[in-house]
UniProtKB/TrEMBL annotation:
<dbReference type="Pfam" id="PF23598">
    <property type="entry name" value="LRR_14"/>
</dbReference>
<dbReference type="GO" id="GO:0002758">
    <property type="term" value="P:innate immune response-activating signaling pathway"/>
</dbReference>
<dbReference type="Pfam" id="PF23559">
    <property type="entry name" value="WHD_DRP"/>
</dbReference>
<protein>
    <recommendedName>
        <fullName>NB-ARC domain-containing protein</fullName>
    </recommendedName>
</protein>
<dbReference type="InterPro" id="IPR002182">
    <property type="entry name" value="NB-ARC"/>
</dbReference>
<feature type="domain" description="NB-ARC">
    <location>
        <begin position="129"/>
        <end position="201"/>
    </location>
</feature>
<feature type="domain" description="Disease resistance R13L4/SHOC-2-like LRR">
    <location>
        <begin position="379"/>
        <end position="696"/>
    </location>
</feature>
<dbReference type="InterPro" id="IPR036388">
    <property type="entry name" value="WH-like_DNA-bd_sf"/>
</dbReference>
<dbReference type="InterPro" id="IPR032675">
    <property type="entry name" value="LRR_dom_sf"/>
</dbReference>
<dbReference type="GO" id="GO:0009626">
    <property type="term" value="P:plant-type hypersensitive response"/>
</dbReference>
<dbReference type="InterPro" id="IPR058922">
    <property type="entry name" value="WHD_DRP"/>
</dbReference>
<dbReference type="InterPro" id="IPR042197">
    <property type="entry name" value="Apaf_helical"/>
</dbReference>
<dbReference type="InterPro" id="IPR027417">
    <property type="entry name" value="P-loop_NTPase"/>
</dbReference>
<dbReference type="GO" id="GO:0042742">
    <property type="term" value="P:defense response to bacterium"/>
</dbReference>
<dbReference type="InterPro" id="IPR044974">
    <property type="entry name" value="Disease_R_plants"/>
</dbReference>
<dbReference type="Pfam" id="PF00931">
    <property type="entry name" value="NB-ARC"/>
</dbReference>
<dbReference type="GO" id="GO:0043531">
    <property type="term" value="F:ADP binding"/>
</dbReference>
Amino acid sequence: MKEIESEFEIMQAYISKLKQVKARLQSLTIMKDRYGITVEGLRGASSRHTIIRQTYLSDASYLNDDDYGLIIGNEDEAKKLTQCINDEEEERAVVSVWGMGGSAKTTLVSSIYRKREVRTSIAVPGSHDKRYLIVLDDMWNRDSWLFFDRAFVKNICGSRVIITSRIEAVASIAQQNHTIRIGLLSQRESWKLFSQKAFSKLAKETSTYPQGLVQWANKILEKCQGLPLAIVAIGSLLSYREMEEQEWRLFYNQLNWQLTNNPELNWVSSVLKLSLNDLPSHLRNCFLYCGLFPEDYQMRRKWIIRLWVAEGFVEDRGTEITLEEVAEEYLKELSQRSLIQVTERMNLDVREDVGAVANRVSVHNGGQVYQPGLSSQNLRSFLLFDKCVPIHWINTASSNFKLLRVLCLRYSHLEDIPDTITGLFNLHYLDFSRTKVKKVPDSIARLKKLQTLHLRFAQLRELPSEITMLTSLRHLSVSNDLYGTSVSGNISNLKNLQTLREVKANKYMVKSLGYLTQLRSLGITGVIESYNTDLWDSIRKMTVLTKLAVATPGGDQVLNLQNLRAHKNLEKFYLTGKLAKGVPFPVTDGFQKLKVLIMRWSKLTEDPLSSLCQMVNLVYLNLHCAYDGESLAFCSGWFPKLKQLYLGNLENLSSIQIMDGAISNLAYLELHELGNLKNVPEGLKHLRLLQHFYVRKMPGEFSEKLEGSSRGSVRHIANIECM
């Protein structure tokens, strides 16, 4: 009886507070009308977004109560959530579960709550002496938490508040060890979930599926990209259709239409588009631009950033930060909102449905042929992804693009750059990578606004002096081989350059490079011994350099690195050519940010590891024809962050020692053509995180021991390939 009275008093207190809030709101409304105050965000798009959110509450709203199968692939996350709820911490704690829309966040939380072991007496959150469990589903901003934080009493009864969100910044409200990210399902997990839904009417004891359906099921799952919401929705719909190959083939061919128009599926797109509707305008433009790329296309991070800059999507925040750095922040925020995924190789996967972009066109393989006309005069971007487009069509089409800012003709069969292209005065981005272009015309000087010029893997060996008149250039990338591309003219004019790759050295250039103090990435080939002093003097002035590639023309030419001074911002370093005196470059504390090091044909005579191990943040190490010694020793504590190691063509190497505690985070190891290495390194047994071990062109004795007497040292490695 006393408990009822206590709860009644609490409710009365809440009612009183609500009346006060209502009165205050009425007062504010009167004042707003009286003084003509306009509140941003209550009209237009934001209001529309709020209505959409109210209409489509969460992904779990559309799922049946028996969709327990969505726990597939999230077993570890479910276990952690249960532990966070039931641990012995007495103070009120916040737990967050976050991931992209449709990843089954709400379903996971609901399924855990239904379990008997997390059931507990649920009291009104204002109670000071009872444990409570509150779920705030689909929270979109951190500001909302300020109200809830005050409303939910901070008792010491083990109470928990669970937040689900699509946004990492919102999830960070929780303590770090109480944050759970929900990812996408693997191919195996996707198939298991899909088969539970699509083949639910088959007899449980059957172990085979109808002939001809498996290939179409796999194609459908590729489209779902591991998203549980899409897998369950499509699988459930197919379970009511005929189990015939023709039926499933027709469904697959119409899948995009089905997702938009079928009332049983169009809610899936609506749930996913909530994330898009919540984007501010500058991020919306950047994200929608990704829709120009082919489906499932992996975009290079730097590529899309330069396109955003060329389009004018990126805010200018002054001289302290570059447009590219601002765009990096945009990219990070899109990732934190679970809209894109940045992979380890700095590629991007778009994780949401992307619509069309006005005044922008991309031509894909097998797509409809774009017919240029009067509307082409307003076109801002044109991206070509079809290798088979005729050259005469490109010439005709480009003459119509009067206001074009972005022109990407990668992979086309162009051999000559049409005069019409150098007449596009508004071009900011021009890309002829992987074409057959052999010459850049002098008329390139007309493109005064050009910021990015890509010619990588093209067939030219020289750039005209007129290229140095393009003073707006920020990124100039040419050939991608050891020969390099010659640049005549005074390159010191290009003071806005941030990227210069791969140019051929000459005595004037190596001195002029010192004026390019904004360079972030430099690749220079054909460096002969007499250029060394001037080159390193110039490089020393590039204080923001993060990527450096230096190569000799081969032969007896050497790189003398004694004048090399450490760059505090350098992250990637590529050295190709014989090093003077056969010793590695001096390693000091200035290389603390270095993550990638590749050394080729260095001809070192001393074990370089004792020196290189001082680069404690190294993630990738590649030694190819770099060392003439007989043994390499990885000592305990060395290379604590190294994840990938490649050792190739080290002719005299006969011993690799790996101590316990060395390269402890290594996940990928490749040994290639080590002719004198006959024994499998026993220390491989210490590398408990090693997942991939590739053996290429190794001695037969090594391969035999790998499969025989040394099998115990590599038994823990999941993927071993011997070729």
